[in-house]
Amino acid sequence: MPANARAAIDATLDDWHAAAAASDEERYFAHFASDGVFLGTDATERWDVAAFRAYAHAPFEAGRGWAFRSVRRAVVVEGSVAWFDEDLATENLGPARGSGVLRFERGRWRIAQYNLTITVPNDRFQAVRDLLRAPAPAASAE
């Protein structure tokens, strides 16, 4: 394991975000552990690497990756495992937060789990909760 694990972890996560912004599918998914999991903002989005790659393939192929930039990150390292949380500046989601776990394997840090969340200010939570409890709009027929 590198002596400066924090710098290596920062570089891994920064490059992972840069790969998404560049729609570089190979580079993006190379950062995941083989048994990695991505948890998206929707309650149905718990994807293993293969399922997440299938979801992301079309946007990446079309050059429509996503641009997330870490503006604050905290990292804790215990041996070959690290966990982190980061505040993200995003183009489409607004303020968001990512958290997760990395493992040092095969000579580098790999993402074992990433959890993407949208932050909600406490004074706006009631309105968001009311929106989520409301009936879903009917799907439009095309």
Radius of gyration, taken over Cα atoms and rounded to an integer in Å: 17 Å
User: Order of strands across the widest beta sheet?
Assistant: 2-1-6-5-4-3
- Euclidean distance between termini CA atoms: 55 Å
CATH architecture tag = Roll
Shape: globular
Task: Please trace the helix and strand order, writing H or E for each element.
Answer: HHEEHEEEEH
Count of strand segments: 6
Tell me the strand percentage band: 35-45%
Just give the CATH class: Alpha Beta
Description:
This protein has one domain (about 5-130): Roll (Nuclear Transport Factor 2, Chain: A). The protein is built from 4 helices and 6 strands. It has helices at about 5-20, 25-30, 50-60, 125-135, and strands at about 30-40, 45-50, 70-80, 80-90, 95-105, 110-120. A 6-stranded mixed β-sheet has the order 2-1-6-5-4-3. A hairpin with a 5-residue loop joins strand 4 and strand 5. It starts with a helix and ends in a 9-residue tail after the last helix. The model has no long low-confidence stretch (mean pLDDT about 95).
Comma- or semicolon-separated keywords:
Nuclear Transport Factor 2, Chain: A, single chain, 142 residues, 6-stranded mixed sheet, alpha+beta, 6 strands
Blueprint (SSEs and pairs):
Layout: H1 5-21, H2 25-30, E1 32-39, E2 46-48, H3 49-61, E3 68-78, E4 81-90, E5 96-105, E6 108-118, H4 125-133
Parallel strand pairs: 1-6
Antiparallel strand pairs: 1-2, 3-4, 4-5, 5-6
Question: How do you describe this structure in short?
Answer:
The chain has 142 residues and is an alpha+beta fold. The protein has helices at 5-21, 25-30, 49-61, 125-133; strands spanning 32-39, 46-48, 68-78, 81-90, 96-105, 108-118. Strand 5 and strand 6 (108-118) form a beta hairpin.
